[in-house]
Amino acid sequence: MTAFARRARASAGRMHPQLSLVSYTLLGHLEERGGCRASDLAAHHTLDKSAVSRQVAALERAGPIERRQDPEDHRVQVLDLTDAGRRILAQVTVSRRAAVQERLADWSEEDLRRFAGYLERYNARAAGC
Length: 129
What we know:
It is a single chain. The protein is mostly helical and 129 residues long. It contains six helices and two strands. Strands 1-2 form a two-stranded antiparallel sheet. A hairpin with a 7-residue loop joins strand 1 and strand 2 (77-81). The protein is globular.
């Protein structure tokens, strides 16, 4: 798992120079949720609020995210992807998928089925934490 995480961190910088692995995961969560508060990002990823705040500030300066007022509660600021952020995330996603497909190219159908099943089981257990 450590080697997997280390490779993921290293590849994030190669995929897009503006995105660390943390930045990529934050953008991915914003895309999935259609925007959310910074405190929600921190809670979801079990990160310190100050660490998320620094990441968010850097992403705002670079342009992939923006703040907007929550339509349901005007006191709340919601983070969301900009059009540039969506393009960057799509570009990185395509690159990451191609890298994974290359690594798995010589795996048998049965190996891929088993691997997918193990990942689903692992992720289902992690979701319950």
